[in-house]
Amino acid sequence: MGNFTVQQANDYIKKNEHLVLQDYRPGFHYAADIGWLNDPNGFSFFAGDYHLFYQYHPYQAAPGPMHWGHAKSKDLIQWESLPVAMAPDAPYDRDGCFSGTAIEVDGQHVLMYTGHHNPDPEDPGKIRQTQCLAIGDGITYTKLDENPVIGSDALPAGALLQDFRDPKVWRKNGSYYSVIGSRYEDDSGQILLYRSSDLRSWQYVGVMSRSGNKFGKMWECPDLFEMGDRDVLILSPQFLERDGERFCNVHSVTYMIGKLDYETGAYEYEYADELDYGFDYYAPQTLIDDKGRRIIMGWMQMWDRNIPAAQLGHQWAGMMTLPRVLSLRGNLLYQEPVKEIENYRSHHVTFKSKLNGKRLLPEMEGSQLELKVAFKPLGASKFGLKVRMGKEEETVLLYDADNGTFSFDRSRSGHVIQEAPTEGGINGVRTVSVGLEDGILNLSIFLDLSSVEIFINDGVKTMTSTIYPSADSNGIELFSDGEVEVTMDRWNLCHKENSKRMEENIISHSVSF
Question: NCBIfam families this protein is in (predicted)?
């Protein structure tokens, strides 16, 4: 068996979490108490709480044998860290409890995950990945004696045994289904569908879809769900080739709109696009809550890049995005931040003005903010704003009306984040095509100590990225190359538990220029 246990992990966290430095720790995004965090797992609504599990290596701010960290929340914003749910302590998962999902069954919380076993690090072909179950009550989880429930013998011909991971489980018409990422013998990604009546005995249904080396390599972290009469498939293809301004990161997240044939397992899609156009968004998962909302949360990071907080010895790495509500409008998947974030607003400042040139806004500055900005060009062709500005630092958000593109530039945002060689030589900038809505560009921007999330035109496009500026780089500046009308609302954002204000002390005022 592996050398890691849940008790060891929890003891280590309790003993060492005080060593974590807070300089870049997020105020309203989830990060683990100490150590390394990546993919969200088991994102679910259970027994009145939102539950978030995640790939976790508590012992250092770098990947290692993966555990399942665990947190819960009443409102998706303020999270309570819970004891580690699983450690790699069984023969079938001794080298990692890899990603998976959760489902409620008869009042119990069932986790379905990938057991990772790597008997010879010098020979990746000997890796075995199988699908396993653990059952719990929201705090404590026990792995099934009969694990793995889907072994290597359940793979179809041509599927590689070493790449078979990340099950998403759901129930439909009295049966359980699971989609699982796989790699075919031609080195391309594919998604497999399985069916079960009891979660313990599974039957292979078919290949849902396969990339054929035309849409990336290994397809990781599939998530399939219904929206109306259509089936949305979200997946994370590795090494998807750049297509203009799309798929610029070393790994991507895409969504497809189509229909699944539950009898054959075939998935036919009519539309596909990138889900987020920023630098740091990967392996998202969705849940449906008691309000009927389809909510998505992703890992706000990207593989194969340096992470400044870890490099600086801060003892942590990785955080989650804001949870977002999904809606399907035609073929477009919109993402909007959950309304619960509004409960953490304070110090409201608003203004409306016309601009031609540059204007620094000292009343708007800050490092943990929500900004709502509407630009109406009245002759300007390029306009936008700079955030987290300092003497030599700035993060630039630019709209080019002539080309209908919005750009995010972090090339001068602080500590350098080196991009992978495969990322196209466009270091520091990401761009997305998006038009004006009734002649207006609407932005919702969320700044945390080391991140920026941008929702464009009600979330038809999003850009999610990490940044690591100096603590005193808090300025905000508007700019344009011609006349533009600007309306802006700004709030501080903070956790209620960290806020000493009372409701009657909330400041709200208007500023005109």
Answer: scrB_fam
